[in-house]
Amino acid sequence: MDRDDPIEARRHFLRMLLATSGVAATGSLLAPLVHAFGKVPKQLLPGQSIYDLRGRVLVDGRVANPGTKVKPTSLVETTSNSYVIFAVGQDAHILRENSRLQLEGKEAFADAMRLFTGKVLSVFGQRTGGKRLAIHTTTATIGIRGTGVYTESEKDSSYVCTCYGHTEIAASADPQATESIVSQHHDAPRFIVKNPEGGKLILPAPMKNHTDEELMLVETLVGRNPPFSGAAGYGTPRRGY
User: Fold this and answer.
1) How far is CA 152 from CA 2, 37, 169, 212, 218, in A?
2) Which residues make Cβ contacts (< 8 Å) with residue 74, sequence separation at least 6?
3) Percent of the chain scoring above 70 in pLDDT
4) Residue 241 lies in a domain
5) Do 97 and 143 fall within a single domain?
């Protein structure tokens, strides 16, 4: 691991913290880690949006700081070597570097997200009245409800991992190209491409670029645990992650 890379340093911290102590543990065992890397994950205070940010992050065109409010209609952008971890209502996200994310909604919840470019890990609270949130990328629309999802959006392709929960994936190039995913633990990652490969627009993919520790972190920010952590606990990343 490159210790000079702030994103990798944060991931290393989370791996050690959560593997040894659980999501919100405290005590002498954590003291060296907290001293070296920051703070123990915990639920955000009412009115607080940002848990952590590094580098240059913009919210609605203005440089963000820890006190910046992210609204259900905000445009959140990161530059090189930057990231932001934030929550809006009962949804929480890690937006990676060189990313541009538009939230679309009202009141306390976003109704849609547009990932113009980049990478985002998201967990979503349950919507009432059968409402479903949609994530739009360059090549796909992902319908979700109460789900953990990791998404990447590039010029000619997208990547979606339904970490847990239920998603409905539709390819932008052909709205008839759809797939329903029900996942318990990263069971069916997918690439969605602009141009068919072997006659298909939705293709199997590996699990990549996100971790269980990060999911545990963002769920903690909104007062929840991911479903996989409650049944079997957590020791180390699963093989192949």
Assistant:
1) 23, 27, 14, 17, 18
2) 59, 60, 88, 102, 103
3) 78
4) no
5) yes
The mean pLDDT value for 165-187 works out to: 96
Q: Both tokens of residue 135?
A: 């994530």
Q: Whole-number mean pLDDT of the chain?
A: 83
Q: How far apart are CA 1 and CA 15, in angstroms?
A: 12
* Average pLDDT of the segment spanning 62-76: 97
* φ, ψ (nearest 5 deg) of residue 92: -140, 150
pLDDT tens digits for 78-124?
999 999 999 999 999 999 999 999 999 877 778 899 999 999 999 99
Residue indicated by tokens 């060296």: 32
What is the spatial distance between Cα 197 and Cα 177, in angstroms, rounded to a whole number? 13
| Residue 176 banded pLDDT, cuts 50, 70, 90 | very high
- 27's tokens: 């005590």
Are both 34 and 98 inside the same structural domain?
Answer: no
Residue 133 shares a structural domain with residue 192:
yes
Domain that holds residue 19: 1-42
- Element holding 94 (H helix, E strand): strand 91-95
Q: How many domains does the chain have?
A: 2
